[in-house]
Specification:
single chain, mainly beta, seven-stranded mixed sheet
Length: 126
């Protein structure tokens, strides 16, 4: 059974940083593209960042480019999202997701991801 579990969310002031982690079980992470998505209050879930199986190929939403960094440790079946210079508009539930295809570049589309975590809340105060 595949399971993704996020952690690291919390309350932070604007301008601060957080590091989200996602641990995958029931799959070999090195065979999957991994992504982060988020759902802000009253909004649809949206793409944040994605990384291919090796971690070399990464893509970001324009709104987080140059502030967020996605990385992975395949030996630990982990993927991370380092979030710097946080803004109140980054407040959302953040979800980790896994895409079992080998598509390149890794997808920004939610429909391409097969497995999802339950999410972790990030709240940025002004």
């Amino acid at each position: 059974q595949v399971r993704l579990v996020e952690s690291g969310g919390g309350l932070v002031q604007a301008g601060g940083s957080l590091r989200l982690s996602c641990v995958a079980s029931g799959l070999t992470a090195s065979k999957y593209a991994m992504g982060w998505f988020r759902r802000a209050p009253g909004k649809e879930r949206e793409f944040v960042a994605t990384t291919g199986w090796s971690g070399v190929s990464t893509h970001y939403a324009d709104s987080v480019q140059d502030r967020f960094t996605i990385s992975r440790d395949n030996a630990k079946n982990m993927v991370y999202l380092q979030m710097n210079t946080l803004k109140p508009e980054d407040t959302a539930v953040y979800y980790c997701a896994a895409d079992r295809s080998s598509r390149f570049p890794p997808s920004r589309l939610q429909s391409d991801y097969d497995y999802w975590g339950q999410g972790t809340q990030v709240t940025v105060s002004s």
